[in-house]
Amino acid sequence: MFLSTFEKQLDQKRRIVVPAEFRAQTLGPFDGVFCFPSIEADCIEGGGAPLFAHYQALTDELAFGDPLRSALETVVLGGMHKLAFDAAGRITLPEELCDTFGLKDWVSVVGLGDRFQIWEREAFRARRDEARAAARAGLASLREQQRALGRKTAEAGA
Fold it and tell me: Residue 48's closest CA among 13, 7, 73, 85?
């Protein structure tokens, strides 16, 4: 699993060192990662061969010509880059992705289990704050639902 968050600085060639913990998770047909524009956020999404296989399986579930299949193929497969590790464990981010997401200097590399995201550092800090607030509110709502269900179960048993 890709875990934790790392802040890394891009060099002049748009290279970053992929955390060793992440490199260990990318065993597959080549020594590197797959990256593409994220569907859910303004960042780069990436992972190893299992992530690529997951998106391929998701796409294959949809009929040929389905608009959602076409959109997924365009964004994920059409936007996919195979980025090989160099001897120092670095990848070179594609210029078009750096330009699209404003990646110029410091980036945040964020582990999300089966995948990771690469964000412009300040954009990620804002996203992290939003996610924390949403998680806090969502958890409070879930707990309230559980308490209400518990009350209904207790009333039904009485």
Answer: 85
